[in-house]
Amino acid sequence: MKCPKCDFIDTKVLESRVSVDGRSIRRRRNCLKCHHRYTTYEKEEELMLQVKKKDGTFDDFSHEKIVRAISMACRKRQISIDQIEVMVNSIEVQLRAEGDRIIPSSRIGDLIMKRLRQTDHVAYVRFASIYKDFKDPEEFVRELKGLKGTRDKEKDVPTQLS
After folding, report:
1. Domain map (residue ranges) of the chain
2. Which of 27, 75, 81, 134 lies at a C-alpha separation of 20 to 30 Å from 44?
3. pTM over 0.90
4. Which pLDDT score is estimated for 150?
């Protein structure tokens, strides 16, 4: 690797360690010519994801955009930014694992809805009201009834105590 100070090609790796998240390797290097010490990071090249929007246009996948959307739905709820990051990371990991480079925006919306439904029903309804673009109050009421039906079923499931 080239030295950033003198552009000399030959360097010596002094130390290597895996990052906390396990997704990269940190290396301390020393230039053999000018003795400059610097740090490099090595990580796997990630698959660039494209989002196909409803109107047919494409946009680069944006982690931050999903964080913003979920944060808006979770505003004034007992959901921390760490919980939101966990949701977004799990969505991103799932999309990358599926292996498709082009993802319909509806797929991302469905995954967000699933995570919010598991996390906070009020945040779920807030997101659903925009994502599903309800045209009349009856559609909104049907969604709420579906959510209530799911909650009632969850209450009927016996829990085991260990």
Report:
1. 11-43, 50-154
2. 81
3. no
4. 60
